[in-house]
Amino acid sequence: MNTLLAITGIGVLCLLFEIANLRKAIVPFTVVALLGTLGITLSDYGTVHSHYNNMIVTNNFSVSFSALFIVLTIFLVALSGDFYRKTEAKISDFVSIKIFLLAGAVAMVSFGNLSMFFLGIEVLSISLYILAASQRLNIRSNEAGMKYFLMGSFASGIILFGICLIYGAMGTFDIQEISELTGSAELPEWFFIGIVLLTIGMLFKIAAVPFHFWAPDVYEGSPTLTTAVMSTLTKVVAMAAFYKLLTGMNANISYEYEMVIMVVSIASMTVGNIMALRQTNAKRMLAFSGISHAGFMLMTLLNITSSAGTLLYYASAYALAGIAAFAVILYVCRDKENEDIYNFNGLGKTRPVLAAVLTAALLSMAGIPIFAGFFAKFALFSQTIKAGYLVMVIAAVINSIISVGYYFKLILAMYTKDSTEEATKVPVVFYAVGVLSILINIAIGLYPSFVINLIK
Amino acid sequence: MDVSIILILLLAGTLVTLFSGKAAGKVALAFGLLALGASVALLTKFNAHQNIGCLGVWMENPQIYFALNGDGLSLAMVLLTTSLLPIIMYSTFGSEVKNPSSFYALILFMGFAMVGTFLAADGFLYYIFWELALIPIYFIALNWGNGDAKERQKAVVKFFIYTFAGSLFMLASFAYLYTKAGNFLIGNLSALSLSADEQFWIFLGFFAAYAIKIPLIPFHTWQAAVYQKAPTAGTMLLSGIMLKMGLYSVLRWQLPIAPYAAKTFMTIFIVFGIAGTIYGSIVALRQKDLKKLLAYSSLAHVGLIAAGAYTLTVDGLRGAVLQMISHGFVIVGLFFAAEVIFRRYQTREISEMGGIRVQAPKFTSMFMILVLASVALPSTFNFVGEFTVLYGLSSINIWFPILGGLTIILGAYYMLKMFQNVMLGEANPKPFADITFQEGLTMGVIIAVLFFFGLYPKPIVDMITPSIEQILSYTHKL
């Protein structure tokens, strides 16, 4: 609860700073304040609190995921300063919208009531619609914002409909009560229809196949920093919320449901990877790679009772690698028209550190040892084997192989091609964010149990 | 002092070399020699029957140990690695290397990963080292290789994806074993009693990784192109040491964990190996590129080694290990000879060579010795290995050694033909300076090793035999 209050407070303060003409201080202040919030959040670890008639329930799950979201937001805000240096609109808008987005994200993992969940998802989505369309004079950004808004509001509608049906079936929004009811009585079929609708909506939000069509266009068209937000932070948020919904309501038990998840998961991996192979635009490529990672993360739902730690670990590994990759992409495509792969040519010679960061990030996503991505995949595989889904693991293994193909396209461009242009000065923030996130990634790669055991 | 000291030395060497600027080569060589010294010191400890293994907890959940083997087999492979590393680094000193600090750091890092692979006694740790070895060689081949950049890229990426793909199947096997045993320690994994079906799938999972790495036909298609495109130091690392990772792993992991499958399908896998030797030899006959010819000869040799390893007899396995070591030295020597010619003629086409003998008698005699050693002339180390493997094969089926022995005949044919075309004939109009001291020393050391162990293989045999007997004890239980 304190976390949510603190975050909202920071968002409001950002806007006040603009009025007080402290524009330069906004980004540093926000970073420091978020670090403080991180401390507040972590101090709640190990306890269970409920607030406002169970509207908000904080436990280890919500604390761990909130901490991850805050860390990701710190990185994203730190990158904002440079990204919006030329924009005419005020930077406080962009930063505070990101902070409000974070508030929505935290609400989405610490809800105790479906109405609070919906509130969270709407706060998050609306912030994203604005961010996607935030380059007002760029037609692609407008297109992305419009597309995302139309599709996203559809999904929100479906989720809301699902929630209504669940309310109709159970007579309550409180997930604790719903969970108790599912255990005892004969369930009305409205409940299951509600769950299905909820699932569809959430699959849309995490961009799983076949609900992924919006993702590539929106990712490509949005300003790059927004793409970074979408592909790291919000993807992880949606996945965590989905997991919490299903575990919270005891809703996933049936065999058929798991089959559906399995099909969606395999389809997401495969379609995401195969489409990614064909892309020449780095952002689009990462969008499709994100779809395939969503497929991987869905695997945690097959062994839902004990996979929260694995999900947290996979999400951290993926999102940190994503942040590092985007820090480099943001630098490389700073003043470029597009984000095509040829922009990365020769980066290994001109900017060896940034090239190494991007290489490490891609290797982590591909699942090469010592990076956290490898361990995440391994934990996921062994858990899924344990749950008895060998076919699933074989599909995942094959997909990991395919993914190497496109990740290496970027690596090859950086190290084998020659650069066509002069290197410009790199603001120190890109180094800081890139190197720091990769170091955290390697650190949790070397000590995975630290993260995995956060949620028992 | 235990075996982890070698890993620490090599890793520290990597970091120091990375920041040592122009002196990188010498710094790296110094660390390589230090690692060699450490392994020799460990060898004396090992011979005095002291425990040089290492066991520590790395993670509680999942249970993963930092466990390193201290037995003869591992130590022999580590000695192979640490003695070849300085030779490989020293061999590059005669030619200009761009960006030396990263180049030598990558070589040392590669050494680190390979030594780790040979030492690891925990499956998970082993897998990490196994994959880690792929990254440095990828960059070495990509950035310092030769030939057309586009083709090189294609070859290297193919190599990476191929081996990575194989490894993932091994990872899946390990994941399955973990759910059974609760940890990854080799002792516990081989003590599991798995059903025939389980063993079959696990055996296949491992096989995917090893057959690609070794390589056995039909999984060898990455090999020739990568050998040709990689810089000579990279080719030496690949052929001299990295291939042995696959062969070593067959002995260390595949046979003890799935002994029943190994026994049931023994013939099939021996045939795979022998088919590789014949195929490799025949293709080598037709090669016009010196490095490619050596690549295919290497394919032929490792096929025979793999066949020996799958015989599940003491002789077969012992021969395989001996041959692994001797092949490591001889192939490094041969690739170095190719490099010596390249430094002077800037070509690897055999047809553009010839008539070198007149101009460079010292080089000719050394090259001749290496060629003879590679075709297993008696009194060279390779003879000991090859003969033991063939003897092991004969206890399975008499046709195996007969077919496998073809490699010696075919090998003699293509190697001597190559020698004839490269070195003999009318005097070449292009000048060929005889070898420098640095080049002579490199080849001299290799030749000395080959002869010493050819005449007196007992130290190595004594060292590896107990480990081999232990590995085979798992298959004898059946």
Characterise the protein shown here.
The complex is a heterodimer of chains A (456) and B (478). Chain A is built from 19 helices and two strands. By secondary structure, chain A is mostly helical. Chain A has a two-stranded antiparallel sheet. In chain A, a hairpin with a 4-residue loop joins strand 1 (49-51) and strand 2 (56-58). In chain A, helix 9 (214-221) runs antiparallel to helix 10. Chain A is globular and about 70 Å long. The mean pLDDT of chain A is 89. Chain B is mainly α. Chain B has a two-stranded antiparallel ribbon with strand order 1-2. In chain B, helix 2 (24-47) runs antiparallel to helix 3, helix 3 packs antiparallel against helix 4 and helix 9 (196-213) runs antiparallel to helix 11 (232-257). Chain B is globular and about 70 Å long. At the A-B interface, helix 16, helix 17 and helix 19 of A face helix 5, helix 6 and helix 7 of B.
Question: Mind sketching the topology for me?
Answer:
The complex is a heterodimer of chains A (456) and B (478).
Chain A: H1 2-19, H2 26-43, E1 49-51, E2 56-58, H3 60-83, H4 91-109, H5 114-132, H6 139-170, H7 175-184, H8 189-205, H9 214-221, H10 224-249, H11 255-277, H12 282-298, H13 308-332, H14 347-350, H15 352-366, H16 372-386, H17 390-416, H18 428-446, H19 448-452
Helix pairs in contact in A: 1-2, 1-4, 2-3, 3-4, 3-10, 3-13, 3-18, 4-5, 4-10, 5-6, 5-10, 6-8, 6-9, 8-10, 9-10, 9-12, 10-12, 10-13, 11-12, 11-17, 12-13, 12-17, 13-15, 13-16, 13-18, 15-17, 15-18, 16-18
Chain B: H1 4-18, H2 24-47, E1 54-59, E2 64-68, H3 72-91, H4 100-119, H5 123-132, H6 134-144, H7 149-181, H8 186-191, H9 196-213, H10 223-229, H11 232-257, H12 259-264, H13 266-285, H14 290-309, H15 314-345, H16 361-374, H17 381-394, H18 399-423, H19 437-455, H20 458-476
Antiparallel strand pairs in B: 1-2
Helix pairs in contact in B: 1-2, 1-4, 2-3, 2-4, 3-4, 3-11, 3-15, 3-19, 3-20, 4-5, 4-6, 4-11, 5-7, 6-7, 7-9, 7-10, 9-11, 10-14, 11-14, 11-15, 11-20, 13-14, 13-18, 14-15, 14-17, 14-18, 15-16, 15-17, 15-19, 15-20, 16-18, 16-19, 17-18, 17-19
